[in-house]
Amino acid sequence: MSHRRRFSWTALAALALVAAAVSAPRASADGPKDWRAAAAKVDGLVASKFRAQKDLVVAPLADDAEYLRRVTMDLTGTIPTYDETVSFLQDTAPDKRSALVDRLLASRRHADWFAMWYSNLLVGTATRNRNLDRRTFNDWLRDQFRKNRPYDELVYDLVTATGNSETNGATGLLASFETSAADAAGKTSRFFLGVQIQCAQCHDHPYDKRIKQQDFADYAAFFFTTTYRRNMTPGNPEISFDVSSLTPEPERSGRPGDMTMMPGRRTGIPLTLEGGRPQLRGRTSFPEAKFLLGKQVKDVAGIDRRTVLAKWMTSKTNPWFAQAFANRMWAFLMGRGIVHPVDDFSSANKPTNPELLDFLADELVRSGFDVSHLVRVITGTEAYQRTSKMPRGVERPDPSLFAVAAVKPLTVEQSFDALFRATGAEKQVERLLEARERAGAEGRRTLQDPRMAIYQLFRRSFDDDEQSEEETFTGTIPRGLLMMNGEQVNRIMGAANPDSPLARVLSEERSDRERVRRVYLTVLSRDPSPGELSNALQHVHTSRTEKEGYEDLLWALCNTTEFMSNH
Amino acid sequence: MTQPRRPSRRDVLGWTLAAGAASLISPRVPFAVAKDKPKGDDDPIPGKGQAKRLVLLYMAGGATQFETWSPKKKGSPNMGEAEPINTSVPGVEVGSYFQNVAKVMDDVCVVRSVTTKEGNHDRGRYLMHTGYVPNPTVQHPGIGSYVAHEIGDRDSTLPNFVSIGGSQGAGYMGVEWDPFVVSNPAAPVDNLTPPPGIDKRRRDSRLSLLDRLNREFEGDRGDDAVAPHRNMFERAKRLMDTPKNRAFDVSEEPDSIQKLYGQTTFGKGCIVARRLLEAGVKVVEVVQGGWDTHNNEHAAVKALAEAVDPGLSGLLRDLRDRGLLDETLVYWFSEFGRTPALGGGGNGDGGRGHYPQAFSVAFAGGGIKGGRVVGATDPDGVACTERPVAVQELHASICHSMGVDQDKVYFAGRRPVRLVDQFGGVRFPPIREMFV
């Protein structure tokens, strides 16, 4: 099966009807984790929604260049290198797309990027958060994604983490809530379960009638025995955080919630619903915790409530856990959730394709919560591999049908990693990263992650909201000014920069057509169209100098809508 | 949506006593509602739409109310080294750190009884800027963004909303209404001038090349793909090319003005604010950080007041002298106040901690009656004893002065959101006492 299928738009309507049948990936017996079979099943479920649509035009598969850039951006947060692009486009192996996914999943950039993505979702985008050590948290997540840690175990570790942030980076999630059990309850239920119970903090859920205000308080009670402590010593800029658990001893009397607290000497402040410091010594009454729309939980001596919560949460039988992550990963890769917004599962916001969501969630559970497997399944589908192109005059299908690939805005991190790769500036960053990596644990402690520092620098200049989960890089005036006039931006775009691709392009290629082609392959990971080629050549030929002409071309391509989005 | 009901001033008084007694135990005091309505409360409030421009003076970190707008009796244990001083308005006192502000109190309306539940910096900042409690599903616009959105001019060469020191973004209103942020008012605007080698001719030829190379991709991808970036370079170019961008240059001001506002970053920020308003910018926010005074209250507030006292008073005088004050609303605010007890900062050396239960904000210009005090706290400053003010009332008052419809409904996704929160079906009108 060739992925370089050329198509004519007039034939599209006909194509749509047979889309699923024509190119069902071959089934193979890879054992329990057969991503090909799963991908085929997914495509069948996606296509099942097409039949009811009138005049639907389903986009055909993307060509290799479009696919390469999309999957590289999704899985490593940046564009492919020029060399990768050329070798992928020349590769004739029939399974080169899945081989590419394997390569990307095994790369260091993948773990870096997924850690960044996931950690932004969990604790916001600020590098320095007052309440947690972002450095150790990101490093911990990176290790998990590097090992392809099963998702249920990863979440279990996050929810049950105790100890000092310096030695256990997983404490970052809990630490980010400081002493607010309300935040802990709202975030963990929304993020890990997709259920927005924080609306029920102040009133019964307005859309989901099953969730009452009391349910919020009952669920938040899982965090009441957790304490938080910020360790600051005067004159020492290093701050660490402790997340601990009080060890409750339930009273024999058996009155609900009655327990004797035995705080240690270095106990922090317990998490509460409304702030304030509850009395910790002696007999204390804590409201009993209750699983969301589930049963009351009895405290057991010596067992942390969070452990009980995490076991229930990550269990295979939890109705929301696998669905929430399957939906989030689908939305991340496809540009839109099957439940949309992605974290709003409720009786009033049903999945647009429930069978599809069920299948993905089941597949995730069957695979033992294998994150990479889920990625292979989704990226292996025709739905993922469709082109994002729909010519003018053809109506773009509703995004919830997944009949055309989405155009996704880039995050701040993706924007700058892509820019740094296209201009060669990443070589400098790579040198710093390698130095940090070589220095081992001590290096991680003392050296800042240079990439984080760069993102922060740019983020500051746009004053983006650092609390937000996902920042996309949009067209503000400061960004326009930075890209036009920024000294650093113009320096890395300059042909004089030794890391710049222009240095090689100008010395290695003779013909301007080849030079333009190389700049296109470097920046947009594709060949220019005839029209683009002639526009570029015309600019180069009318520029004051050859050098200026190519600098302008590099600048322009790095500022195209195409470069600034994932498509 | 529930039909809005209109609680009167008396309505909110219903929970005054409850708040006084209970606010320390539980900040969740419901807004109880009384049945009877005093006469006159349904009369239209004057001053609607009088303001054409807005200045936000944001005191980041949680500004003390005791040393500033709401001093307690001399010698009161909660006053520390500060004391009350007389102002140009008989019977109205401010803290001794506000020597210059005291002289322009005729123009200032202080609200001494703001009460919220948010004692966390980020949440408090969000609440005071947007009028909403932080919510993971909706990003609400800050005051600057929504006022700019309502009264701004899309074709303006200058941004409609400039923030000197950063601000809340435009949330669901879109990036176009985000603040244009200037980090240092004494320095040139970042990246406003081209780097060496990129003259105007080359810049324009780059932009024209970009335009041509965008065409094929944009033509095939639909509007949603293009919208986030539309006009970015066009708007940036307009700002570069307009002679009005000189308004950012504080050095053009004479020494007398520099002296009036004080030679501090905040003072210069206030000067730039005035220059921008004159050039047509609708909203300017100036930020003074450092108010999180957990340690050594006296020294910390003294240093802050050295910037804020001349900056604020200078701005009010200057706007008044130029005949701009009546059409300019000035709003001084913070994310919350500080604990009444000195030493409540948690570090045992006389600082103050966070205190959202009872704190102060101040207004001037834009149809506000100067020389007024709204609300009061008890002699220790622990609880509001008179006219507690909810954050929605502050936003409603700003909307009133700016001529913005506080009840306007927007859609954040599928969710209807009003400009000013009507949580629980309760609509808060503007603070009548500020205008009548």
Write structural notes for this entry.
- The complex is a heterodimer of chains A (567) and B (436).
- Chain A has 567 residues and is mostly helical.
- Helices cover 49% and strands 5% of the residues of chain A.
- In chain A, strand 2 and strand 3 (240-245) form a beta hairpin.
- Chain B has helices at residues 9-13, 16-22, 99-102, 121-130, 143-151, 200-219, 223-226, 232-241, 255-261, 265-279, 297-321, 391-402; strands at residues 53-59, 84-86, 93-95, 108-114, 161-164, 180-182, 283-288, 328-334, 337-338, 354-355, 359-364, 372-374, 376-377, 384-386, 409-412, 415-418.
- Mean pLDDT of chain B is 87; it is low at 1-38.
- At the A-B interface, helix 10, helix 21, helix 25 and helix 26 of A face helix 4, helix 6, helix 7 and helix 8 of B.
Instruction: State the shape of chain A.
Output: globular
Largest interface: A-B, 68 and 67 residues
Separation, N- and C-terminal Cα atoms of chain A: 23 Å
Query: What is the radius of gyration of chain A computed over CA atoms, rounded to a whole number of angstroms?
Result: 26 Å
Strand order in space, largest sheet of chain B: 6-5-7-1-8-11-4-12
Assess the beta-strand content of chain A as a share of residues.
Answer: 5-15%
Estimate percent helicity of chain B. Answer: 25-40%
Can you give keywords for this protein?
heterodimer; A: 567 residues; mainly alpha; four-stranded antiparallel β-sheet; three-stranded antiparallel β-sheet; 49% helix; 5% strand; disordered N terminus; B: 436 residues; alpha/beta; eight-stranded mixed β-sheet; 16 strands
